[in-house]
Amino acid sequence: MTDAANEKLYRLIAEGIPDAVIFADREGIIRLWSPGAERMFGFTAADVLGQSLDLIIPENLRARHWEGYRRVMETGETHYGTKLLSAPALRSEGRISTEFSMALVRDDGGAMAGSGAVIRDVTQRWQKEKALKERLAALERNESERSG
């Protein structure tokens, strides 16, 4: 495949998958925002391109996020490796629970250019798990009261 064909293929995949595909530069400015990201977060690419990642990071998590992001951009290393990460995120109308994987992106000279991520909305799964845990705890309390 030619470079142009590969580039087109990557673009078609990023545009076609339902998960969000985003890229932020070294300063945390959003430079790529896929159609999946538009659907998930409720912001169009026109709304977010050139904006800070703060748009989707809950305020109470921003300081910790930026401390880690700057460290990664300076060192080119992350202690998360290829792990699947979980974090709450902001969307145009509220919060969602997400899981995501990251890719550190370097320029042609090997310097850090930014970070890409593939993000999945797991809010429904998280809510179901929470409800199951609450139900189990209630059943255990009832059983304890009966046998106690």
Describe this structure in words.
With 148 residues, the chain is an alpha+beta fold. It has one domain (3-121): PAS domain (Beta-Lactamase), CATH 3.30.450.20. The protein has helices spanning 3-16, 35-41, 45-48, 62-75, 123-147, and strands at residues 20-25, 30-33, 85-91, 94-106, 112-121. The chain has a 5-stranded antiparallel beta sheet with strand order 2-1-5-4-3. The longest helix is centred in the C-terminal third of the chain and has 25 residues, at 123-147. The model has no long low-confidence stretch (mean pLDDT 92).
Short structural description:
This protein is α+β, with helices and mostly antiparallel strands. The protein has helices spanning 3-16, 35-41, 45-48, 62-75, 123-147; strands at 20-25, 30-33, 85-91, 94-106, 112-121.
Structure summary, number of beta strands: 5
Radius of gyration, in angstroms, nearest whole number: 19 Å
CATH class division: Alpha Beta
CATH topology: Beta-Lactamase
Present the secondary structure layout.
Layout: H1 3-16, E1 20-25, E2 30-33, H2 35-41, H3 45-48, H4 62-75, E3 85-91, E4 94-106, E5 112-121, H5 123-147
Antiparallel strand pairs: 1-2, 1-5, 3-4, 4-5
